[in-house]
# Entry
Amino acid sequence: MIDANLLFIFLKKNKINFFTGVPDSVLKNFIHVLDFHKKQLKHIVAANEGSAVALAAGNYMATKKLALVYMQNSGLGNAINPLISICHPRVYSIPLILMIGWRGSPNEFDEPQHQLKGKITPTILKLLNIKFSIINNLKDLNKIKDLISYSKYKKCPVAFLIKNNILNLNKAFKKNIETKYHLTREIVINKLLDNIQKNTRIISTTGYTSRELYQIRKNKISKKGKDFYMVGGMGHSSMISLGYSLNSKNQTICLDGDGSFIMHMGSLISSGFKSKSNFKHILLNNGSHESVGDQKIESRKVNFQNILRSFGYKNYYIAKNNQSFTKNLKYFLKSKGPSFFEVYIRSQSMKNLSRPKNLKKIKEDFIK
# Structure
């Protein structure tokens, strides 16, 4: 085990003062420490992993100092392009250090998508010609020091992998739970399922959203509509929804989260201008990456109404309490899309959540 604060102190001593990335459940304790020490450093939660790598590159060009980019190994796909086409020694040769949460590491039980990515993660790093180490305990911190030296000398990216349950956290660094908003994901999903049409299709984003929809569906008496639960592919639920809706007469609802939504916001130009009247988009906005540790993001500071109108969405609705949600849900479901419904919820998930199982069957049931 490694105390997350001791890891932070170690990195500071090695002159790492700029941190960016996309939150991850394996690394959540370290990110909570970054938030605690935010006055001592620069820390930016990026929209996606590729943006974080580019941000770190810009930081180096201005300061000649290494930045640390954190991510889950599932996000390596988003990071590959800037790692190769910007930072690689044969291109611009920009040093940085990757801190990667290793889901699906050897001998660890995990979900199917993590098992697949976990198995090939070391191979991906080798193909990228990125020197890396596996960090398991405090003694391994010297490996990180060697990586930093190597990155500076060779002017190239390096990485270290951390498995699940390696980083622990002192209680002093834990956050208070937000209580400002009364709506929860559970309330929203229950009311949505009570009001949809018989043939409605719901495509839900990865994380707690799909898990809660799956859990609530199992207990629902009414079986109106069908669901497709995304367990991976963060940020791509709207494009799957668009692809389905273009070839169907069924009302198609993308049930999105704010962290997922901002990861690939460029897709709005397609979902707004190319969709049909059956396309509906719900954003559950809790201002955080709740599923991986409740790390805060700036999503509640954005005027999505102006953005969405400029991207071709015909209707925009918003709800910040139960009364406005109940009222606007009816308008939203009856509207001719593309329509968008932003719902402010608190960071609070159902207890004892199960996970969608038999993914191929879920797909087959959805497309029947």
About this structure: The domain at 185-367 is CATH 3.40.50.970 (Rossmann fold).
